[in-house]
Queue: 4 jobs
Job 1
Amino acid sequence: MKTVSLSAQDSELVLAPGAGGGIAQLRLGGREILRAPAEPPGLAEFPMAPWVNRISGGRFVWRGREIDLTAGPAGSPQGLHGIAWRLPWVVRSQSAREAALELVWTGGAGWPFAFSLIRRFELSPDALIIEAVLSNIGAAPMPFALGFHPYFPAAGAVVHAATRGGWITDADGIPVTPALEEVASRMRAGLTIAHEDLDTCFLGWNGAARIAWPSHDLEIMARPVVDCLQVYTPAGADFFCLEPQSAMPDALNRDEATGGLGVLEPEETYTLTLSLRLAARAAL
């Protein structure tokens, strides 16, 4: 797998353009920040676009037209996490501390809307900033959602994030009932990852989170503020995920007001930025 490497003092970022434009490795200040799991795609972070998470039945209806997501690159029965992470990207620019990767989809089976997605990475000795810019390059309006899917080391991790509650899901992982206020309350105070088994979209997020490990803390910030934070803590795994996303799972089958689905007009763009920064020890 061909990679692109950036460095800034004791920080190192390794990108995998050919493997979905994702991150293979990230260390900040010499500390492991992201951990690639053994499960596919084997990346430490990847983009979710032009939709996020699961779509019920892998299908949706857009302005009277039924679209089968499984007929294209998404492949899986629920079109898991979009198509951007399943396609090769190209390197548009690279320097010692910065790089830009791009994916261009001209439309086709599984997603008839043409779009481009550029991800810009800026590494410093204590932080990584990822800017994702999604553009509608087609002639018709395009529904969309955009997100990041990072994997963090689970050992000793405690997560602080302010949300109002999460969704109970069905057997296929599709949200069905808003609830989990008690879990959200514990996450505001500090959720010990080793004690949880979640795959849940939490709503009412303020765009900020903090992970405390025994040796260091990490501040996470999404801008603009997005309402949805997917929390994935598989029991017994050595990783967990906090996934900032502009819409909830199955947003393509929900209205914009409840699911967060966005619409890009031709030539319109949407930008979402994720910041991962080492932080001094402090209580939230």
Job 2
Amino acid sequence: MRIGARDDVLAKPWTELFEEAARLGFDGVELDLKVETYRDSEVWSERGRRDLVERSRRTGVAPLAGVAPLAGVEIASVCMASVAGLMTKPETHEQGIEALADLRRYCDELGAGVAPLAGVILFPMIKQAEQSEEEAFGLWRDGFQAAFEKSDGARAKVGMESVGRVGRSADQALAMIEAVGSPAFGVYYDVGNAAYQSFDGIAEMKQLGGHIVQIHVKEIGAEMGEGVLDFAAIFSTIRDIGYDGYLILETEAGDDPAANALRNLEFVRGLL
């Protein structure tokens, strides 16, 4: 398994993010997109994607003679954040589909995830307040199917994340996976969110198994290892289900982001 961090955990702009991640010892980073500015981000620009790849490569280790260079800090995943909400609004449904399809292709250009890992797109599952479950389900299902069809051939996986105070269960996630019917579609599991939403994270991870495409690790309302979560049991379960992808820190940056990130990185390493 590899360990990464969200960009807001390291509290650095993307121009400095890869060097900071490398300095602290992370394997990868997760980039976060905002709905108001996603089209203006480097991810949505050909030149910007080249610059992101170059920053990633600059953090690689110089090769020995006759040995291939080691990869730098990877772009492990890209979070659609509020961009995902476009899909559940009928008036922006098509825009949400296009955004997801484009992002799958862009992740391939970014080299997000070096083989055997595929890049992952985090898709937060938040429906509009006034929507019924049935309406939201239909918009998601149709939107995911259309986005996969438009980006046929792209490698990036799409992982649903249960976010917010009212969570979505493993049963709901599996129903969506069956309805969408794509092998590139799964769950981005967040162990902190699961506890916050009163789900049994260990039981859910066992139920989801190979459908988990990436994992967020954090404790809500406490430092990792000092709250309610049994991380030893959580990490034992992660190993038991055969997960071997990225563990992405989504911890608080605090007053000293570097020190906090390093503390949490060392905590996770101690459990692997």
Job 3
Amino acid sequence: MAEFGFVHLTDPHLRPAGERLYGLDPGERLRAAAADMARRHGPGSAAPAAFAVITGDLAHDGYEGAYALLREAVGALPFPVHLLLGNHDDRDAFRAAFPEAPVDAAGFVQQAVATPAGRFVMLDTHEPGQAGGVLCAARLGWLAERLAEGEEPVFLFLHHPPYRSGMPGMDRSMLAASEGLWAVLAPHRARLRHLFHGHTHRPIAGSWHGVPVSSLRGSSHQVALEFRDTGRVPGSQEPAAYAYVRVTPEAVVVHAHDFLDPTATFDL
């Protein structure tokens, strides 16, 4: 495997067509992201993507009409899209709109995708009526089974971060009982190349138990950087982004791209 590339996008928070959220049109922004991804990372480009992964909060509060808009937007991409659920989603509405989406035996939207770079394992942390994420015994059992199936490198995807970011407004809704997730992952630590998540609406990079992690701003609104505990979650309209991820045997490189930034480019 010389090189493998894919796109990471998160938190589109779609509403029915034409409806705005926090003064923005999430559908318009997702269509702009899709057009930019197709242009920069479609077949024949300098940095082609094998697929895109969208790490949850696909629809804002699970609006059924939003999932129809999502299908239209991702259908314009020249490569497949893997969809995860977040706390704002509705599992039943999602499955009605995307009946072909892979699910496990218990009905959770989870899958493991074989790639030249390794196995991409995508988890469902959605828990109805709850802002924080949950991985119950059934979901963790499914993960343990997938990890036991081979020895290839593993890339992990989920909506909720399993670690505290230091931003109290978001840490209150991180993945609950994340030590349970680590108990399943720890025996396979040497195989874990990267963990990607959404939910925070922030560009974040670091490590958790020594495993490299990253997230990025959503394709719609953002969470403002705030380390004081105000009792609230501060929002912002910082630039929307997606990431192109380049994987080689030696490195995992995450290129965040503010796809709506009109700044001119020039030779240095």
Job 4
Amino acid sequence: MNNQFYRAGKFLLSALNICWKLGVVTLGVGIIILVVFIAKEIQKDNLRGGEQLSAYVKVYTKDGYKSLYNERETEFTLERLDWVSHGVGEDRIGVYSKNLRRGFYNYDTGEPLADAIYDKAWNFSEGLGAVESNGMLGFVDRDMKMVIPQKFHIVRASDDWPDAIRFQDGQCVLRLTPDSVGVIDKSGQWRIPPVYQSISELTSDSCRVVEKNGQFGIIDYVGQLIFEPQYDAVRITNPSVAVVAKDGYQKKITYSGTVLLSFVFDDVQEFSPENPLYLQYEVNGCRGVLDKRTGKPVIPAIYENVECLSQNRFLVGLKDTEIPLNCTRDISYIILDSQNRKISEQ
């Protein structure tokens, strides 16, 4: 009998021990589930809002930092970023900044493609992305391999974020210094040497407007000058046609030099009803006087502004950079007659 009670007690203690262990396990699992639930709720709270970057990637901002979140994989791919670039083109590769250094990320997944190891980096174009370290600029391909070595020394007038450095039809405009701009091809060779102050993007007929010593000209895709830099302004309006301005006059010509219109103005305005003989006209941001009867300028458009004083007298404001030779430097206005003769100065 005693032996039966002993066995029953032993069984009961064993069962209680098992139940206690099961209870501890159940409690542990419950705590884990609760922690996961709370974490998910916190994550849900953190994921409210956000800015859609691409089909599956959102940008979230917290404590002044940016984070990339992949909604399909339900995970953050890059966190505590200074900023991320937007508006990425066909290459689908963007730039991110972390601790003031730059790297690249996949625009569609948010995954990092290159660590933040560069001083500067620019969005990809035509399969290449510009990167800069210690003032030396080069280009990496989609595999993050340096295919154009960092051999271009960039000097800036300030620490402002530079203009976009990107390829267009196999060419890229590079500014080495504020006054040294050229064009390279995808081999990293100069197609247009860096001897210009500015170079425009390619036009529809694959030409560019170039500036040298404050004068403008036109250069073609292979680097041959169509017009030497000799004009105050140049606008390419149609393929093989340009509007060029010089000394207050403007004309429309073809690349071969044929004059299509000998006189072109940007804008024209009446002076007042009291002066029906003359008009105020504008060329390249400067103003002059036009004879309404003949349609010809009587005072060239080289002045900051023009005011009609009487039917044949005009007060013109001088530009700082274009003071007529017969004027002193300490004046700002002169009075001219309708024959462009100086009457007095102020």
